[in-house]
Design brief:
Two copies of one chain form a homodimer. The first copy, chain A, is of the alpha+beta class. Helices cover 18% and strands 31% of the residues of chain A. In chain A, strand 8 and strand 9 form a beta hairpin. Strand 11 of chain A pairs antiparallel with strand 11 of chain B, so a sheet runs across the interface. Chain A binds a DNA duplex (30 and 30 nucleotides) through helix 3.
Chain lengths: 211, 211
DNA sequence: ATAAATACTGTTTATTATATCAGTGTTCAT
DNA sequence: ATGAACACTGATATAATAAACAGTATTTAT
């Protein structure tokens, strides 16, 4: 969210405190008087700018038509999904709980269960619409159905792969034509470990400081 | 506290829910219209009685000068993002608040502000990694920076487009090579309307009943 | 039964607020 | 140094809103 200038902040705060106290917003004239402006247009133009930056919403032609857009508090202890680290770039270990952050998303949205999140590095799943930088939501489980996408641990590296299990081998397939498949005979099956099942992604277009 | 009559309760509740939704109280005329009264005085006398019983406080002569005394739990609602409908398949109107659901995600994750969600229909933004069925998170704003992706209303249809504004025209570009661009000279600029800025997506791989 | 409180209609007027048009400096990044 | 965003003044039109006055039914509690 674009930052307010000092003056804009003061006006925003005045509106917020007025709203708190009276339960309705001030009029433009009331704001003008508080700041000692000689013209209401000073207020009008400020409000327009504050609205453009997304902090308030104006209702055209309505008296006191100022709606404060609430800034959500980041400290709520709502249900959330732990972000464990990056995939294809290290070993995410939930036992250590050394997560960088929690995503403020209810696990219910992704079907519940023991969910965690991993930031996707690289283009290996691009054809499944999973891009570099996306946050993959994973449900912790040791086995997945044939053909499903899973987070798997190969050689101490976590990656997203589509998993195919036949009677005599295990195939890990990237969703990217330029990547080759991995195939493991059953005897080497223990070289890989399934961390969990891919349940979806969250993509934040501009970094919000969460990652 | 003396009890309100049925009618008074209904009016009080209407004011409370209006206040909840808009963050400012209704005018007497707005109350009149909602209840279908032929006269504003019906409202006036009701308000006077409700005030006498101590449920509201009126500010004489002030527009929307109604203060709720029994504060409705404004803080009971968990932060979430309203899902307004589908994009490229109808007109999402937040004024009507006819959302199908709320996504249990904190708006903070997508930078806060007045966020809403739209389900993406079609392949028009496939090259930006936005796929059919994804849920786009949009922040309500009237203008976006050049080259940003926005939800725009074209001919009463909402779509996601990358917006380019030059001195003499407005170009809407799909992120899909098989789609052609829309170009509007400045004179026709008002044919389109920007609903908000694209902030990211959420993709639930298996339907969770949220959509 | 009857007064008091409630639930309204109808009309007019005064006041409150917002919108619009036309400007002037000032700051700030390129 | 030059435009763009910011921070204002000033005047006027118009819409939005509340207040006031004068009533009529209906319900509710004595």
């Amino acid at each position: 969210m674009k930052k307010l200038t000092d003056k804009q902040s003061k006006i925003y705060e005045f509106i917020a405190s007025w709203q708190m106290k009276k339960s309705y917003p001030p009029t433009q004239a009331e704001i003008r008087d508080h700041f000692g402006f000689g013209s209401q247009n000073a207020v009008r133009s400020h409000l327009a700018l504050i609205e453009r930056k997304g902090y308030i919403r104006l209702s055209l032609g309505k008296a006191r038509g100022i709606k404060l857009i609430q800034i959500p508090n980041l400290f709520s202890k709502e249900p959330s999904i732990p972000l464990l680290g990056s995939i294809a770039a290290g070993v995410p270990l939930w036992e250590e709980q050394n997560f960088e952050d929690h995503l403020p998303i209810s696990p219910a949205l992704f079907g519940g269960g023991e969910l965690f999140a991993l930031k996707v590095i690289g283009e290996s799943m691009i054809d499944a619409g999973i891009r570099n930088g996306d946050v993959a939501i994973i449900r912790r489980q040791d086995v997945v159905d044939n053909g499903e996408i899973a987070a798997v641990l190969i050689d101490h590296e976590a990656t997203l792969k589509r998993v195919f299990l036949s009677s005599d081998s295990l195939i890990l397939k990237s969703e990217n034509a330029t990547f080759k498949n991995f195939e493991y005979p059953m005897s080497e099956k223990n070289l890989i470990r399934i961390l969990g099942r891919y349940m979806g992604i969250v993509r934040m277009e501009k970094n919000r400081g969460f990652l």
